[in-house]
TrEMBL record:
One of its GO terms (cellular component) is plasma membrane. Keywords: Cell membrane, Membrane, Protein transport, Transmembrane, Transmembrane helix, Transport. It is a single-pass membrane protein; Single-pass type II membrane protein. It is found in: Cell membrane. This is Biopolymer transporter ExbD. It comes from the Bacteria. Belongs to the ExbD/TolR family.
């Protein structure tokens, strides 16, 4: 029996048509979800300071990996004490906010608790993120 004597296959081989089927599926899928309509997205822009604009006055709280907390260059008794000092200083001197900086090994809950307390006090919080490798 030669290859020309064989009977036709009972099911066609669709492997060569996979690309065509994917193209048809893509056209049908994009047409059915309405991608022909524009969607307006409101994306907040970057607010850069104008040259010569005054730099915001802030105070920095630093949390170190050994558990020490600093307000500026002064060591605080604890993280809660550092937050209390920063709130008092920000209100007394009319500062624009508090910057939090933590070593990579500091537990997240220390930073989150400090940020929450500052936010509860109505103080703007900024975070410094440093990737040191």
């Amino acid at each position: 029996m030669t290859k020309f004597d064989a009977k036709p296959l009972s099911t066609p081989n669709l492997a060569p048509m996979i690309g065509v089927l994917l193209a048809v599926f893509t056209v049908v899928a994009t047409g059915s979800v309405g991608l022909d309509k524009a969607l307006a997205l409101d994306i907040p822009g970057c607010h850069l300071m104008a040259p010569g604009a005054p730099t915001p006055r802030t105070i920095q709280i630093t949390f170190q990996r050994d558990g020490q907390a600093y307000v500026g260059a002064s060591r605080a008794a604890s993280a809660a004490a550092a937050v209390a000092v920063a709130v008092r200083e920000a209100r007394t001197h009319g500062l624009d906010g508090v910057v939090l900086r933590a070593d990579p090994d500091v537990r997240y809950d220390v930073v989150a608790t400090a940020a929450g307390r500052l936010d509860d006090a109505g103080i703007k919080v900024s975070l410094i993120s440093e990737d040191l490798y």
